[in-house]
# Entry
Amino acid sequence: MVEAGRSPNIEILTLSEVESIEGEPGNFKVKVKINPRYIDPAKCTACGDCAKYCPRLAIDYFNANLTFTRSARIDLPQAVPTIYYIDAETCLHLNYETCMLCTNICGPNAIDFSQKPEYKELEVGAIIIAPGFGPVPQEALEKFGYGIYDDVLTSIEVERMTCVSGPTEGEVIRPSDFKHPKKIAYIQCVGSRDITCDRNYCSSVCCMYAVKEATIIKEHEPEAEITLYFMDVRTQGKGFDEAFRNFVEKYGMKIVRARPPKVEKVGEKIALTYVDEDGQRKRELYDMIVLSVGLSPPKDAEKLASVFGIDLNEFRFAKTSTLKPIETNRPGIYVIGAFQGPKDIPESVMQASGGAATVSEILREGRFSSYIVKEYPPEDLELMSGEPRIGVFVCHCGVNIAGVVNVKELVEYAKTLPNVVHAENLTYACAQDALEHIKKKIKEVKLNRVVVSACSPRTHEPLFQDTVREVGLNLALFEMANIRDQCTWVHADNPEKAAEKAKDLIRMGVAKARRLKPLVLQRVSVTPTALVIGGGVAGMVSALSIAEQGFQVYLVEKEPELGGSLKRVKYLISGENPQEFLKDLISKVENHPNIKIYKGAQIENISGYIGNFTTTVRIGDTSEVVNHGVVVVATGGKEYRPSKYPLDGKKVITQLELEERLLENKDLDKIKKVVMIQCAGSRGEELGYCSKVCCVQALKNALKIKEIKPEAEVFILYMDLRAYGFYEKNYFEARKKGIKFIRFTNERRPQVVEGGVKVYDMIAGEELFIPADLVVLSVGIVPSEDQEAVNMLRIPCGAEDGFLMEAHVKLRPVDTATDGVFICGLAHGPKPLEEVISQAKAAAGRASIPLAKKEVEVSPIVAAVEEAKCIGCGICVELCPFTAIELIKVDKKRKAKVITAACKACGICASHCPVFAIDLGGYTKEAILEQLAGFKKEPMEKVVEEEKVEVGN
Amino acid sequence: MGNAKGKVLILGGGIAGIQSALDLADLGYYVYLVEKKATIGGVMAQLDKTFPTNDCSI
# Structure
């Protein structure tokens, strides 16, 4: 968020709406209406005085309407832009021409009631629509007593309650009596999977977020008893099943499979009446009910559609197709995020990067034509070389830090430390106004070292480093004292000791800062080509996008033909033809001037680092060496063959085998009864995880059978029918067409026996035998066996499932821990075709960034070898997890050399070097010893001298 | 200012819009990020923690 606020190439227009659009791809004219903020952004310092004095209460939408705010306000302290605004709907002056208190109170005279709506005509080459989702209809909530009983809440209300900066400061309380609820129930599928409120789709995210919320409640209130009411548990995302299981077990949550039709008040409690899986009618009393609300289309979906000239689907979301998941019907206008269909954060992020790639394809000629290059002022060498003048900024982080320790005291303490010439508090050091303030102070007080005592360098160090650079300080002169993650969060129950520890951490940070030295910023040039490993859909879509963006691609496929797993998929549930798509894709890839294809080829060797990889490709007896700047790994997956089932290819087959038969109309006349078994080998049988696609695949094939042979009887035996998103409608259709669904549990799985399948029926309470002519197994997906390239690139794989691991599950779903290496497709995890396509585009977008920039800035905080000391033993080379150290010959002697662009500054080499020849920039032995000395509270010089003697000895 | 082909408009400043804007800026484009509310961040800014890492969502 803050990063977007700081980019010179992102112009944020808030309180704005698009009025009209004219033109075509490459040349759109967009009329935007910018509503008045009534506060001048250039003058507002975000001091908050206007909100403090504003007499007009307004309902606080940001806190889910749980509390009041003022007409003059800011939604959250970290808002971007960090500028207050006046809510025109409630302001006394704007509605009744009275008040104007804020005008008098505002120090910098920023209040400006004369502002009028402003209209801008913007000329752009492409448009991306990402308006998100809207609220569920009121009637869907009322059905469960919301708005009738105080203690029925929505999940977003509880989300705000669990937030420490929310309306209850992190406490979960029942609105009726402000007591902590001891017994809580979550009701799933509110405003989802419900035809009565016109929501015949699944919102895909609620099962997972309900468990997350319940977990957080349990952390706040360990004694709370939480029951979750599900229809199906749809945690089909990567790693979600495992997380779900762990949290339910760890916190002892109760899972009930029912949708309570009746919610009523009984005394001070709320009663839920439902029928459980055994067919028993039950009633339970709760202190509080939480409704897991679904994702609806935006309220103004029709208006958006008409302004942008795009079509909506039957559910009022933007209409797209499986094969073109981010394209609307209007060329040059793309849709991403929840408006394209309900989805979670990682998938939204994938589509976002995919959308960026698609735009970059059509606008490749315009790249850098309107771009503003961010320039930093030259470093102030005189200031930096002087005696350390340290500034310490202690962040409150709302109540995260200030709620546990006395931050004022920490500031006073910091002022007593040597070389500290300035110390002060900041409410949120990461907020834009606070960053501006830090810059101002660096200039005013002539600071040449900055210590921010706040959250964690893991998330915020780059932001602060960038801030000090903007005023001419070298980024290595910044130091962070981690007083939140490693102090107030973990010692919240012991504030006194926490305060002591915070002081220790600040003292150590200051001590280290005294020894920090400026480091040289390096740039590495990038070979503007990409290597894509894998010629399935993911690899081809990715290769084609990178090529269309204007860069050379080398595509390596191990098989003699392109196509991968999709070759076996004969039709889609949407009715689209995957084989025509594949044929077309292959022809585009094969004929693209920027793509060179190696078929029947293997990766023999990959070495190098972002910008400069070298790969040897072996094709039969010959081999070729290619240089490239980035790598996209799309090595795919394959059908798992479970060992516990008698798969014979005749009477017991897999869904893919069935698909071939259905297409060829083979042996269909003999088939009268078909039994499909879901999760065959998956979700705790042989594989631990859910393969995400098999439920929809079963529905697709079952419906196909019914289409060809309506009289055939089809059973689907399942654990949770994961027809998420709009696939719910296919599930509904399947039920209507008479396909029979029987649920089983992991403990009592169905058995394939002679002539049919045995399954335990929970409602009847007995084992059933279903005779079948054909048993179809919905088997899972496993990663492909070809892992050589993955191993050479040292991409970590999931310990349980073997799929490639992304850098961050939510926010960096196609990046890996190694810069310049990207992943997509089934190699990253099981997913349906439209998600593979989005993800492949995303990988292409992310991979093209260094190619477009032509160079990458390398962090100066890297290892460096002191050549004179190095004995060339090679221990560091062996230990480096990023292959960032090589041995070179210097005057016929072996010496270690760090490839700075590949170094991740983990410090393993420095800590293992037997002759102390390796130092880490920013973490030199000198600085670390000083930091340790700081911990001892003794005069620093003395301790450092002693340590030096020890090291010398 | 500049060439229309070097500029992109994104409607919506939630996580999807922001990520797309950042990527496009990194790819060499100038982005207008149009948001209805007074701040960007969307629904994700309202979430306390995100699963399963429980990172702060801001």
Observations:
- The beta strands of chain B are 7-11, 30-34, 49-50, 55-56.
- Chain B touches chain A through 56 residues (CB under 8 Å).
- Helices of chain B lie at 15-26.
